[in-house]
């Protein structure tokens, strides 16, 4: 039964207009990050940092995770509440269906859907490098691993943990209001927390980076003293290993 719930969730999402809207939101987001210097955080930074380099990709993926909190909550949360909204749970729960099959199938389908939706950020970045008005002096030849590695090590990991959290909250509360509010609440609390942390200029960097749920602090801790050359050549996995080794 796991496979049936999993495939049903995927088919349902393929028929949903919101899935394609979310996908093209991330396509547009990263397209503008690369094609328009005044849009993204890298364009306004040091003019020698590559707009499609390893450091830029890490920043883009971290930003996608932050602004995508509401989308993650919506996809994972509604998947488990759909049966309660439409009163189909009364039929499903009378069948010999295990918790793993029901919950696992819904969760896995939501995970795959969210990863596919957020992969639009990679497509958008690639299309941004082709824009004729972009600053091509800051655009390197496209390397698939420069796009794929930050996406797998940052975005997919964040989707897994944050999506699981939102899924569990929705399954326990069974309230659609909580589903849509939890993502927005998490976003606001995080932004306020990161603002306060930056304003206080705390000297404590290790534990704040480790427990940062979106990884903005951790990314800053790892790359704060790196040169432009290192930011344009080193992937996050290499930086993370060196960062942890220093403690």
Short descriptors:
13 helices; 0% strand; single chain; 247 residues; mainly alpha
Task: Write structural notes for this entry.
The protein has 247 residues and is mainly alpha-helical. It has one domain (2-245). It is 72% helix and 0% strand. The chain has helices at 2-14, 17-35, 54-67, 69-85, 89-92, 99-118, 120-129, 144-173, 176-200, 206-210, 216-223, 228-231, 236-245. Helix 4 (69-85) packs across helix 8 (144-173). The longest helix has 30 residues, at 144-173. The chain is globular, with a radius of gyration of 20 Å. The protein starts with a helix and ends with a helix. Mean pLDDT is 83; it is low at 241-247.
Label the structural class. Answer: mainly alpha
The first-to-last residue Cα distance is 47 Å
- What is the helix/strand order? HHHHHHHHHHHHH
Helical stretch tally:
13
Beta percentage is under 5%
Task: Specify the biggest β-sheet.
Answer: none
Rounded to an integer, what's the Rg over CA atoms?
Answer: 20 Å
Per the principal axes of the C-alpha atoms, what is the gross shape?
globular
Count of the separate structural domains = 1
Low-confidence stretches: 241-247
Number of strands: 0
Integer average pLDDT? 83
Chain-wise SSE layout:
Elements: H1 2-14, H2 17-35, H3 54-67, H4 69-85, H5 89-92, H6 99-118, H7 120-129, H8 144-173, H9 176-200, H10 206-210, H11 216-223, H12 228-231, H13 236-245
Helix pairs in contact: 1-6, 2-6, 2-7, 3-8, 4-6, 4-8, 4-9, 6-8, 8-9, 11-13
């Amino acid at each position: 039964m796991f496979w049936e719930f999993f495939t049903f969730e995927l088919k349902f999402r393929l028929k949903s207009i919101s899935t394609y809207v979310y996908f093209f939101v991330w396509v547009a987001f990263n397209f503008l990050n690369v094609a328009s210097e005044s849009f993204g955080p890298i364009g306004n930074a040091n003019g020698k940092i590559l707009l499609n380099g390893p450091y830029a990709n890490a920043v883009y993926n971290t930003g996608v995770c932050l602004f995508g909190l509401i989308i993650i909550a919506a996809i994972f949360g509604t998947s488990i509440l759909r049966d309660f909204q439409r009163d189909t749970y009364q039929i499903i729960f009378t069948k010999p269906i295990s918790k793993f099959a029901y919950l696992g199938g819904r969760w896995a389908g939501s995970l795959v859907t969210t990863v596919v939706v957020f992969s639009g950020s990679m497509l958008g970045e690639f299309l941004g490098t082709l824009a004729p008005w972009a600053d091509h002096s800051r655009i390197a030849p496209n390397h698939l691993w420069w796009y794929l590695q930050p996406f797998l090590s940052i975005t997919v990991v964040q989707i897994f943990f944050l999506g699981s959290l939102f899924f569990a909250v929705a399954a326990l509360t069974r309230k659609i209001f909580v589903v849509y509010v939890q993502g927005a609440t998490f976003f606001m609390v995080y932004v306020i927390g990161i603002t306060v942390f930056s304003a206080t200029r705390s000297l404590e960097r290790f534990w704040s980076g480790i427990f940062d749920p979106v990884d903005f602090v951790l990314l800053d801790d790892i790359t704060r003293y790196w040169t432009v050359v290192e930011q344009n050549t080193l992937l996050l996995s290499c930086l993370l290993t060196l960062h942890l080794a220093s403690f």
